[in-house]
Amino acid sequence: MDTEEASQLAYKALALAVADETDEVADVLDVLGHGCTDNQMYGVCCGFANVGKLMLERLYGVRIGADGPMVALREIVTGAAELDPPQAFAMRFLAAFANGDNDMTLTLFNVAVSAGAEQYVDSVCALLANVAGICRLARDTPARE
Description:
By secondary structure, this protein is mainly α. The chain contains 7 helices and no strands. The protein has one domain.
């Protein structure tokens, strides 16, 4: 699969996830997962995270990263990240991407890939689900000026 096709499928998966069309999302992710290289899947994850960043900026009315505040994560339940590694990946990847920390996004992605196929798939799915949730929230919330 070429990069353009992977990009189109990634945004199709995101649109379907926002619309809560879970069966169709699974089909598109299956095509992506079997047709993409690791480099392309890293690009897919960055694409998801970029949309998440843009929707967070819309929700909070500020530019995140180099020209504005940084995204920070606060662990509410001690040890929660260790209990759900895919969810931890999703939140950490989104925060690192939003903050412009490309080294960290690549490191997180490589850790997810090396964790085994099931955790890798679950991590990409968790990222997509989190970004879709942020998109739905942004869609349903009036934009801040």
